[in-house]
Amino acid sequence: MNPETRIELAFVRWCKANKVVCLKLKADSQKGLPDRFCLLENGKTVFIEFKTETGKLSGHQKLVFEKLKKLGHHIYVCRSKEEAIHAIQTTQLPKTSN
After folding, report:
1. Does the global pTM surpass 0.85?
2. Mean of the per-residue pLDDT values for the chain?
3. I need a labelling partner for 30 at 20 to 30 A (CA). Which of 47, 57, 63, 79 fits?
């Protein structure tokens, strides 16, 4: 099992334990999709791409990720389970008004 897969599976286990809907993205016709997407409360969606410390995004990934950001989605490149958990927890936090 490669290192990215280990990180991803550890995060999936955390999601199951914490009742976070975490789905695998698979598409034969679209290159560059993130590894996982998580459905959170209040209609929030978080896309996560897992990479090792030296892993880099492909050109296709950069284009797809930019499109998702422009549409207002949260997208993160995570290099550890802890980074992915932090992305979920940060996105779930309610915005406070001043």
Report:
1. yes
2. 91
3. 79
